[in-house]
Amino acid sequence: MNISALKRELDGMKIEDNPAIAQQKSRDFYWYSPVLKRQLENVTADLVVSPKNQAEVVRVLAACHRLGIPVTPRGAGTGNYGQAMPLSGGVVLSLAEMSEITTIASGRVICGPGAILADIDRATRTHSGQELRLHPSTYNTASIGGFIAGGSGGVGSINFGGLRDFGNVIRLRVVTMEAEPKVLDLTGEDLHKVTHAYGTNGIIVEVEMPLTASYDWIDVIVGFDSFMGAARYGNALGCQDGLLTKLITPIAAPVPQDYFKRHQRFFRSGQSICLVMVAPHSLDAFLAFTRREGGEVVMNAASMSEEEKKGLPPTFELAWNHTTLRALRVDPAMTYLQSLYPFPNQLALVEKMDAMFPGEVFSHLEFVRFDGNITCFGLPLVKFTTEERLDEIIRLHEENGCPIFNPHRYTLEEGGMKQTDDIQLAFKREADPQGLLNPGKMIAWENPDYDYRSGKTFLFKGLQRAG
Ligand SMILES: Cc1cc2nc3c(=O)[nH]c(=O)nc-3n(C[C@H](O)[C@H](O)[C@H](O)COP(=O)(O)OP(=O)(O)OC[C@H]3O[C@@H](n4cnc5c(N)ncnc54)[C@H](O)[C@@H]3O)c2cc1C
C-alpha cells in the first residue's frame, strides 16, 4: 500500500499517521464482544484523514481509488461491532469535522455527517422547539452520519419505529468511490442503499432529517415485584395512544441493583424496573395509569430537587446499549445479545426466554412501534462462559422464534438478517467497483456463495494482514 504517495496527494489536508493515534481512531466499542475482542484486537489504519468539506472527501476518495487504498469512514466510533474498524488497514476517514448545521426549518434539519446528535437537538430546540425523532443512547457522543450508517433505532422508536422505516431519514448526500467520485442525493426508496450499510458503498457528506416537537422529557422509574410485571406494564404503556413517552425499558432484577451504581438507592432488593421518559403534559395521566397497573414509582425526576438529581445520568443512559456498558463496567465477564420478540406474541416469547437461562441471561427489553404495532426488542445481558455456549443461547432463541441480530459478528449479514441485501450490494457495484470502502463488512461482496446457515463464522481474508 503506497501510503507515502497518498500523503503527497493529500498535501494540505489534515492527516495523522502517528501509530498510537491511528490505532485509537481505528477502534470502536468492539470490545463489548469477547469474540470480536479476540478477532479484531490488532486492526489498525495506516492513516487517519479528516476532511473539512465535501470537496476534500472527493479528493481523498479519488486519490485512494487511484492508489487502491481502502477507506473506512468513522463518525464518533461508538459502534458496537467493529463497524468502523479498518480490517485491511489503509485510511480511516474521520467525518467528525464536517459537523455544521446549515438549515433548520419546520419538520427538518440539514447538517454535516459529523454533527453530534445532542448538538443538533440543542440547535433545533433553541431555533424552533423541535428535536430529532429518534436517537441512540449514545446521544451525547455519536454522530448523525454514524447513526444512519451504523445504528438502527433507539430513544423515540416507541413512537417512530426504526431508522430504516420510511420517513425517518429525508435525504442523504453520498460520495462514491470511483476514479471521478460522484455526488448523489438519495431520497425515498433509494435511501435503503446506504442506511445501515456501514459505509461500505458511499460516504455520507450531508444529511436531512425529520424533526418533531421537543419536550423537557421527564425521567421516571417504575418498580415491580417480577420481571414479567415490568414487561406487561411496558407493553400496556406502549399501547396507551394518549400518553406521550419516548422510552419504555423493562429490566430484570438484579441488573439495576448490581450495575446502575448511581441509581442504586432507588431500588429494593429483587425489584425489576421499567425506565420511562414521559412528556410533561402527559405526566399526571401517566402516573394515574401506572397506579392502576400496580407499578410503584421509585424515581420521578419531576418531584426531585436539583440536589437530589445531581450526579444522576439521564435515564436513557441506563437503556438501550448503555445497560450493557454499565454491566461491563462492574463485571467484565458480561456480554449481551440483540433479539426481537415478534408481534403479536411478544409477551409470551419474553416470558419463555426469560425463564430459560436462570442466573445466566438477564432480560432487558426496549419497546418500539413497528408498522403500527407495539412490540419489543431485547438486549439481554449474558454471563459469558464460552463462545460455544453463546452460540447455543443464540440457537435456542432462534429455535423459539426470536431472531437474533448477532452483536458478536463484524459483517452486515451475520449481524442482521443473515441474507444478502440485494439493494445494498447492487449499489456497491456502482459506487465502489474496486471494493475499497470498509472492506470485509459485506459478505455478499467478498464471497457471493457464502452459506449464512452453515453455522460457521465468516472470516474475512483481508483481516489476516492485521492479525
Ligand atoms: C453505550 C452504547 C449505546 C448504544 N446505543 C445504541 C442505540 O440506542 N441505538 C443504536 O442504533 N445504536 C446504539 N449504539 C451503537 C452506536 O452508538 C450507534 O450506532 C451510533 O449512532 C454510532 O454513531 P458513531 O458516530 O459513533 O458512528 P461510528 O461508530 O463512527 O460508525 C458507525 C458505522 O457507520 C459508518 N460511518 C460513519 N460515518 C459515516 C459516514 N459519514 N458515511 C458513511 N458511513 C459512515 C462507519 O464506518 C461504521 O460502519 C450504542 C453503542 C454504545 C457503545
Q: What is the architecture of the largest domain at the second tier of CATH?
A: 3-Layer(aba) Sandwich
Fraction of residues in helix: 25-40%
Structural class estimated from helices and strands: alpha+beta
Q: What is the end-to-end distance?
A: 17 Å
- pLDDT under 50 segments (min length 5)? none
CATH superfamily of the largest domain: FAD-linked oxidase, cap domain/gating helix
Q: What proportion of the residues form beta strands (DSSP E)?
A: 15-25%
Q: Tell me, what is the CATH class of the largest domain?
A: Alpha Beta
Number of helices: 17
Summarize the model shown.
Keywords: FAD, Flavoprotein. The chain is an alpha+beta fold.
Give the SSE map.
Elements: H1 3-9, E1 15-16, H2 19-24, H3 34-40, E2 47-49, H4 54-67, E3 71-74, E4 91-94, E5 101-105, E6 108-111, H5 117-128, E7 130-132, H6 144-150, H7 157-160, E8 171-175, E9 183-187, E10 203-213, E11 218-224, H8 227-238, E12 245-251, H9 255-259, E13 272-278, H10 283-292, E14 296-300, H11 306-309, H12 320-330, E15 334-336, E16 339-341, H13 346-356, E17 361-362, E18 365-370, E19 373-378, E20 381-383, H14 387-399, H15 412-415, H16 422-431, H17 443-446
Parallel strand pairs: 2-4, 3-4
Antiparallel strand pairs: 1-2, 5-6, 6-10, 7-10, 8-9, 8-10, 11-13, 11-14, 12-13, 15-20, 16-19, 17-20, 18-19
